[in-house]
Design goal:
The complex is a heterodimer of chains A (107) and B (241).
Chain A lengths: L2 H28 L4 H24 E3 L2 E3 L4 H16 L2 H18 L1
Antiparallel strand pairs in A: 1-2
Chain B lengths: L10 H32 L4 H10 L3 H12 L4 H12 L2 H9 L7 H9 L3 H13 L4 H25 L13 H13 L3 H20 L4 H28 L1
Helix pairs in contact in B: 1-3, 1-8, 2-8, 3-4, 5-7, 7-9, 10-11
The chains are: A mainly alpha (107), B mainly alpha (241).
């Protein structure tokens, strides 16, 4: 692929990535959202976070299968408890890393 | 719903707060971007090409896929449409963030939108919900994460094969961060229920749907179910009064 072609592809990638990020921000910050939509959106963060985390804990990627007992899952338990107890973001990240590393040594 | 955090409240403090909140993201981005750079180098990308992609696109998952597709000789159309599909979920995230940017200038939004990623969204959303989070802090966070991403990905290309994967559990930094942010979002029984539904939906759709579709599908399903649950509970309360 020539340099010019590469830049075109990357620019197109940039555009299709940027537009979904920009359009809703501009649209919905100017006009009010209907109440049901606003309430629905309130639940989106918790839903997205959970949807992002679940496969990391319970699946393998190639082929896609459910597996129980991944190191990620085992490390998640103390991490979750620590987060619930302390509500410290930095602490949870460190505890998570330590547990994952430690369990990885044993597992 | 709280809103209207101005852009110019206590500038230095705001910027500092944004940087402090960004560090777990930067910590997580560093090894991921580094490995992206390594993969890109294997695929034959030059450092400037990595820099161009990380600057113009700034979206982890889709960049990994794009690099793999470039190495495999995929057509530009396939690469761009895959990128679109993978990153479409940011539409939902921007919509959710929009309530906190009432009255923001188009210019500010144009700049801020660039940095909306899974991670920056999660942290900014949490901070806005907790109150006392300014637009300046949110923007700073986006920029800090972005800078780390670009620099680390280019570094990865230079370092090539020298990077050992999984050093000291650093692979888990982002997961750890997501877990804590999830905990912050558990603001009531409806939220907890939504989280559980989302997890189940996510696992099912992950198995059945290709690519990253599972994120959007599971989130929408879970949020809708959660809303229905919330309204049912509210109706029941009203009937008992």
């Amino acid at each position: 692929m020539s340099n010019g072609d590469f830049l075109l592809v990357v620019a197109a990638m940039g555009a299709v990535t940027y537009l979904p990020r920009m359009v809703p921000l501009v649209m919905f910050s100017r006009c009010s959202l209907p109440a049901w939509f606003a309430e629905w959106l309130e639940l989106i963060p918790v839903a997205i976070l959970s949807a992002l985390i679940a496969p990391t804990l319970f699946t393998q990627s190639d082929p896609r299968l459910i597996i129980i007992g991944k190191t990620e899952l085992l490390a998640a338990l103390p991490t979750l408890l620590f987060a619930l107890k302390t509500r410290s973001l930095a602490g949870t990240v460190v505890i998570g890393m330590l547990c994952y590393w430690g369990l990885g040594q044993i597992h | 719903m709280t809103c209207c955090k101005s852009e110019n409240t206590n500038d230095t403090g705001s910027v500092r707060a944004g940087l402090v909140a960004a560090w777990p993201i930067c910590l997580g981005y560093f090894p991921i971007a580094l490995s992206l750079g390594v993969l890109a180098q294997k695929a034959g990308l030059a450092p400037w090409q990595m820099a161009a992609m990380s600057t113009l696109v700034f979206a982890g998952g889709s960049q990994f896929i794009a690099v793999a597709m470039l190495a495999g000789g995929a057509s530009p159309l396939a690469i761009v449409s895959t990128t679109l599909m993978v990153n479409l979920r940011h539409l939902l995230m921007s919509s959710a963030l929009a309530v906190f940017f009432r009255g923001s200038s188009r210019r500010f939004l144009t700049l801020f939108a660039y940095g909306v990623t899974d991670e920056s969204f999660a942290v900014n959303m949490t901070r806005f919900n907790q109150g006392a989070w300014t637009h300046a802090s949110a923007l700073t966070l986006n920029h800090a994460a972005n800078a780390t991403w670009i620099v680390s990905s280019v570094l990865g290309v230079y370092l090539g094969q020298l990077v050992p994967p999984g050093a000291a559990g650093v692979d888990y930094a982002l997961t750890g961060m997501f877990i804590c942010l999830l905990v912050f979002q558990l603001r009531g029984p409806v939220f907890t229920a939504t989280a559980l539904i989302a997890a189940v939906c996510s696992l099912l759709t992950y198995l059945w749907l290709p690519g990253n579709a599972y994120v959007i599908v599971a989130s929408c399903l879970a949020a809708s179910t959660g809303l229905a649950l919330k309204r049912t509970l509210r109706k029941r309360e009203r009937n008992h009064e």
